[in-house]
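dude i think i finally got it to work??
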Amino acid sequence: MIEWVQPSLFFYLGAAILPFLKGKARSALLLSIPVMALLAMLSASQGIHGVVSFAGQELVFGRVDKLSLGFGAVFMVSAFASLVFALHVKDCREHISALIYVGSAVGAIFAGDFFSFFLFWEIASFSSVFLIWLRGEKGSNAAGMRYLLVHITGGLLLFGGIVIHVGSGGGIAFDAMPEMGLGPTLILMGFLINAAVPPLHAWLADAYPEATLTGVIFLSVFTTKTAIYALIRGFPGTPILIVLGAIMAVYGVMYAVNENNCQRVWCYHLISQNGYMVTGIGIGTALGINGAVALAFTNIIYKALLMMGISSVTHMTGGRKQSELGALYKSMPWTFVLFVIGGFAIAGVPPLVGFVSKSIVVSAAAEIGQGWVILMLVFGACGTWLHPLKLIYMVFLGEDRAKDRKIVVTDPPANMLWGMRILASICIFFGLFPGLLYGMFPHPMDYQPYTAGHLVKAFQYMGFTLLVFMLFLKKLTPENYISLDTDYIYRKGSLVFMWLVKRLAFLRHVT
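look at this
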């Protein structure tokens, strides 16, 4: 009897079979893959599986524990909803890229050693870039190349760190780093790049909005959350992560204020939300780790829902920017309702899933007496409230800024709506029954989100942010310009580098 099947195999085999199927058979295969992978994952007993001897080392392809099972479960659910959302896509290449990408992310979280983890990590990086390139536009081609170069750099740092760590006697087991040194530092830097930690973050807002309308859904889930998993596994209790995470929480929401492109708004929010997770990992207590896991789980759900909402709007209207949209609540009522659920979930409105997860990291910071961290996280929470309000108003409720639109706008196709409905239902379900969510965490936890104190704080954030939104509504009106981030450095730096290369080549030719 087979005790363990690496769940990634279902995605890889599905990607190989998919080109030979069409119509309903293709749709059936797409939807069955995450279901079969989930069943295989849940049927395995906790422990070590899939050990393979290679070059004198024991590679572990199946470490099953509460942490990997929890991430695996939410990955499968998100993959299923995203595939439902993407059923209308005719380009088989996009489905194949998504399947290989998701399968590699799933494989990484079950890898028990550094080398098998690195293998899945790199396959995920290379397969995900096709979700950007398949959009087939000049901007997406350039953004995809920058994305690939950044992740190649991260992969080299990770691999170099692994080689140094193993060569110095650290072993290949992927567990918490015993102490910092050159090897663990390089490994940490590789993880931080994929987690989009400033100043190593600009690739995210640069590349994701250039992806296909369904590709951006997958991208918003798996790369950064695999990195969050890796940080939890390898660097819990690392003090520098507290500082970096608190900066991320504020940096993301501040940059999102200036964005006109709706997808870039959520990209910067993704950075901010990851900051809460990185902070919890840095705190390193049971409550901090549980808080990081809680936010990773819930962020996967409502962030995918919000990206689906914007992709639906773009699919039906052709507009990606707030300055091109407005007054869509009548023509796209289902999209409006589902988008509001996602927006309120990310803002932490009770009784949605964001409310039962966001306060855990703040409580962990209070537990160790980090007042400045609490202040920055609260500031980030207010900013998180502001932007859902802004997008709901600008996209769905405000004046129509595309009055010359000649196409008839309606809700998107049924499969896209059902993808959003699945995730919206999860936002409501776990918000009402948080104990079921908390049961998936790596550490036992008796945490009560629906206390008077937590509710009062939530409504204080809501009230303050609503007041700011109303007072500065005119200032928040979107303008059609591009905001510069740290990607400006490597964009200009690459031009200088190419100039030097050409200059050296010319001098060599002359001599």
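The CA atoms of residues 299 and 346 lie 7 Å apart.
im so relieved honestly
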